[in-house]
Amino acid sequence: MNxxxxxxxxxxxxxxxxxxFTVLGLVNVVPSLARxxxxxxxxxxxxxxxxxxxxxxxxxxxxxxxxxxxASHVISAxxxxxxxxxxxxxxxxxxxxxxxxxxxxxxxxxxSKDLRTHDGKRIVFYNLGYPTLSVLKDYLILGKxxxxxxxxxxxxxxxxxxxxxxAVQSPMIEPSDLERLSTQFGFSFPAVQNQSSLLASFMDxxxxxxxxxxxxxxxFMWAATGIDQDYPLNPTLAQxxxxxxxxxxxxxxxxxxCVQALYDVMEIGVKTANGVxxxxxxxxxxxxxxxxxxxxxxxxxxxxxxxxxxxxLDALAKEMGWTYLxxxxxxxxxxxxxxxxxxxxxxxxxxxDSIAKQIEGYLNP
Amino acid sequence: xxxxxxxxxxxxxxxxRLTFRSRGRGWVLLIASLLVIFWLQPSMPIRNLDFWLPVLxxxxxxxxxxxxxxxxxxxxxxxxxxxVFILGVILLVGLTRYLSVKGxxxxxxxxxxxxxxxxxxxxxxxxxxxxxxxxxxPALLWIxxxxxxxxxxxxxxxxxxxxxxxxxxxxxxxxxxxxxxxDIRWLGFSYVAFRLIHTIRDRQxxxxxxxxLQEYFIYIIFFPSFTAGPIDRIERFxxxxxxxxxxxxxxxxxxxxxxxVGLFKKFAxxxxxxxxxxxxxxxxxxxxxxxxxxxxxxxxxxxxxxFSGYTDVAIGMARWLGFRLPENFNHxxxxxxxxxxxxxxHMTLTQWFRSYFFNPVTRSLRxxxxxxxxxxxxxxxxxxxxxxIGLWHGITWNFAAWGLWHGLGLFIQNxxxxxxxxxxxxxxxxxxxxxxxxxxxILLTFNYVALGWVWFALPTLQSSLxxxxxxxxx
Lengths: 365, 474
Hints:
- The structure holds 2 protein chains of 2 kinds.
- By secondary structure, chain A is α/β, with parallel strands linked by helices.
- Chain A is built from 14 helices and 5 strands.
- Chain A has a 5-stranded parallel sheet.
- Helices cover 71% and strands 0% of the residues of chain B.
- Classes of the chains: A alpha/beta, B mainly alpha.
- Chains A and B meet through helix 1, helix 3 and helix 11 of A and helix 12, helix 13 and helix 14 of B.
């Protein structure tokens, strides 16, 4: 044993490490791996997209790879049955079911009604909501969902999800998505940092691999327990007494042009559906009866902004010929949980009843 | 420990081996181990405990060496210098409070210098007081033993730990309102205690060789095996300490391989299995027989890969330092009976208990109670040993139940094997039936051990019984 031997060992080790690092940085194994999943094979598919901040309690985690998320969802369980009329629900945490058990979500409550088309097909609802307020995020999901042969897409939105400031605030929106959308549609989003370095690729691949194996392992826990969310014991209720604040997303009263609502994304999204009907739903919000209710509806919305948004959306829907359901005040104040957009199970039932009635009217005229 | 911590320590071990030969090696190992016990001690909500617990480890080690040494050793000059050195390291670590408001070596800023100096003076006073004792005083050995057991009880008995936590909070000027047992996490104490008790008991029986203070300290706080073993014997360890130390290709290769395997087992396999291993939370949530078994098996393999991974890391690192630590695992889940399992699982622990409990108790019962049935003696000794091993993990009903499970299992297996042996001798010439018989034995043993993990993984008897119900369709 001498210094030369040690030196050779160290050099060879360094070369091996660099080679491995380079390969992992250059070879993108992610796209192929994302579609490999134990869900719908060894374990049942999840009934909502993966999301969770406390994985060890919720057996769920927040990841950014949409392919991976969809591969774990029950919508990826093989070919669409011939007797199924497939309805996809898009939206935010109110659709996803924040603080709701799986069977209490809008999709499950609709499924429990066992609705049928006039020719006897089962109308099956799939929860593709995701807990962030971003119409851009919805658009990305819609772009993938059309591959799953939906017969109807119900896209639930609210003003917050349209605000440009919120557009990119979603874990699943990756820099490459922003870059593509900016180029494709001429959107102007914040400048994206160049992520093309080898180190960045290596770190991205490493993170995605880590997400992948954790998502698979938590699939066993999902199957074993039926748990996909951590429910706090005493969640803070949505604010009822409101601030004396007429601004919205930093915009002064009545300056709606400052808001920069991304109606463009909705228009393009509907076109992306390739002929699949897309219904737009203005989701219910909490209408407070507390302090300063004359200025604000709730924590999120001053009255001027929200009323303007409703008018604009109604006009747009008419112009575009969209099927538009304005359910903004369907759910009473008491049927909201920790947020002005999170209904209780009873609140979701009201929404389910309304949508079911619309669908029955649409499919069985 | 994180991967980064392991890699840093491994690199450090390699550097020591390559840089220091026989001269100075002992000093470097001593200083490295002293610094590592401060560095690895996790932070706790009790102020400055991350400094005082390593100091307490040093105090116990110094005290144990003094009471196990001969007067000649105590008075020897070459044992005086290490004391100065050790106390100097404590002072230096304490003085890092002036380098940063956050910890440099310790998790948080060390205590005020006056307190550190006071502790050094106490240690020095103890050293000099015992130095003058003319011969080894037997009572002191028993006192040492009792002190270590006392600390053990405080750390492992939840009620006592929580009371101590409250007391320490108040002592440090903090509110005790939210004091918890988990606030006290003394890194490596369990294994330090085993090594200290081993030296005390061997001194009592006259088997302990003469060791210098430096050798003793390095043995007790040897950084590769400080946190999780293996539990080596001092005479074997000292032999390696004094071996010539040029690095060989074999040491480098074998050490590196064990390190790599250990890291993979612990940070890849065990951590992945940990996501679905049985625990208190998912035990209440799991539905279905099959899924309950999956969670249980995941726990069984997680604990194996976690522990054997740490052992591999320790053995690999030690090999790089020129030490051949004893093995701790030998494919335990592939053993065809429970006795073989316990001869293959955490081997150094079972050997320790065999030496310091099972054998002495058995001998004592046989000689003192000649009328006692040997089978009954075996039952007492096995039950006692396994329950003690259980309680070493924590003084709770669940760990006691786990120990009882294995103690009874060992006894029954021993009786059944004795009965079967003459009746199955024909299998020796029948390879296929023998293989089937062995295979069945492996399956039975593995599942018995796996079911035993229910007691180990869960915090209460009730939750354990509920899981047993779920496992068998209840």
